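Researcher: Before we compare anything, I want clean individual predictions. No alignment, no superposition, just each chain on its own. First chain goes here; please echo the sequence and then give the structure tokens.
Model: Echoing the first chain and its structure:
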Amino acid sequence: MAFWIVTDIGCDLPLTYIEKQEKLTVLPMPYQLDGVPGLNKPGDEETSKEFYDKLRQGSVSTTSQVNVDTYFTTFKELLTKGEEVLCLTLSGGISGSVRSAFTALEMLREEMPNAKVRVVDTLCASLGQGLMVDCVIQQRAQGKSLEECAKWAEDNRQKIIHWFTVDDLNFLFRGGRVSRTSAVMGSMLRIKPVMHVNEEGKLVLKEKVQGRKKALKTMADKMLEFAVPKEGQKVFISHGDCEDEAEYVANFVKESRPGTQVFISPVGRLIGSHSGPGTMAIFFLGEQR
């Protein structure tokens, strides 16, 4: 019996992708834009430009994790229908959602000791988490069990490589990623950070380059350097309302490595609240982070 995959909107998978999958549910996550509460949910990518335009105009967006009750209710509804569940959460290095999921699982097992639920911290974010979900879906399609797929996720999460850049350092300053001085001086000198998600699932600065095009080229070069060189390699690209630049990176990848499958989708409100407009990220399978 095929099991359900439960993940959260931190994966940045669009509704068009989600609707094509069987037994996949993507949980919304709360955010506030200028103090007005909302839920970032599948389908919001259709209005992502409006969200990023507000950020450009000075609006402030904050986010929250998936709460325990949401996980508990979701797990219990599926289990009472006789389903098994694999939960793949946003990285615990940047969100407390995974702790909520494990707490919900502990509560659930008091009521249903034999509940077949596994929770895995993907240590991934944005379409890196989305790529993990996609890979597990493929593993499930090959007939692998809940336990086998959970083990695959745990064994391979360090092989999902993330590279990011942002256009406005002030968003990283607000999130505590860079100092105020670095944000001000970097903006003046057109310095762009090139970052990745490390083994602990945290976003860390790796390089500083001058100019946007150099940052995009550096990210694409990282993919060529570190991606597993196999036919049909999947590369996921997410962007904060800069689709033309996402296409530029995608074309560079496809020309440099023919046969690569490239998937592009906007960065959602959850991640975009902290990275800002102009965020660009590339995700792929490699040997190790």
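Researcher: Okay. Second chain, same rules.
Model: Second chain and its structure:
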Amino acid sequence: MRWVYGIIFALIFTIFADGMFGVITRTFIEFGQYDKKTMEQFPDPKKTYITNIDGVPKAVLGYEDFLLSNWVVELNESAAFLENRVLSYVKPVDSKKFGAVLGVRVHFPTWNNNCYAVIKPPFPVKVYNEQGSFANAENGVMPNAWEVKAISIWVNGRNYNNQISLRLTDRDKNMTEIYFGSLYFNGWRKLTWVNPNFTDKMYAKSLKKIPLYPKDIPFYVFNSIVIYRLGSEIGGDFVTYIHNVEMSYTPYIVDDEISQDINDESVWGIITLKGAKAQAQENKMLTEEIILYEQEKYRMELEKKEMIPYNGSTK
């Protein structure tokens, strides 16, 4: 009889444990909400400018440079001719199905050339605010994400056999590229990558205790979307639209009475201090990047004006 009770107890424990390690599905980034959420972080000013404090240049950030219309398309070196760069850009587009989405135009070389385009914000997505709390949660940052089960992307194809992938980074600055497959279809489609190393079965997991506070809570940050074009495929202009990216994962910390008993950060402020130091360093690097970015942006605008009307020639 004891073995019967043992089996029942094991089943109950397995069900309970599986519930503890339940999978959460949340929006990683939704491009229709991106501009609104970004503007909320920059109440003033609208435009970014450089000021001097005791002879040291410093960037005063405005939201305008961070909006979707200022995202960049970077071509790989063998495809990054001036004309291709000028004719590759992104902008918000209205969709009847989803509302505002991210519109992407890439001008690939017309000759046989394996190449790719990286679509990304002009500056890295901000992870922490000045208080050390997460910024841009579900707006390019997924906090408290431990094991990733699946990632999906809503994308609109135009029957071009190009490939699409997503690049993201973790708390240790490690970059991972998620491959979704071909865009050889017309209209909206939800492409999903499923982690082959993930299991829902608790008894199959390799469980171990992991240090918590003041170790940073695991998170993932949006880095870029990549479009790959094989040399055997059609070159020239390519257009696609992206609605959002979703992530299914198990949380690193499960909210319960124990974890909520004492607010570690309010007592010690370790993460806040680290966040402030990291932000100071980021601001210093950002000042240099903004100066170069504004110069390049101005130069590209001049080149674009010189190319109008476009004569259709492509290297």
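Researcher: What stands out in the second chain?
Model: The two ends are 80 Å apart (CA to CA). Additionally, The first strand starts at residue 24 and ends at 30.
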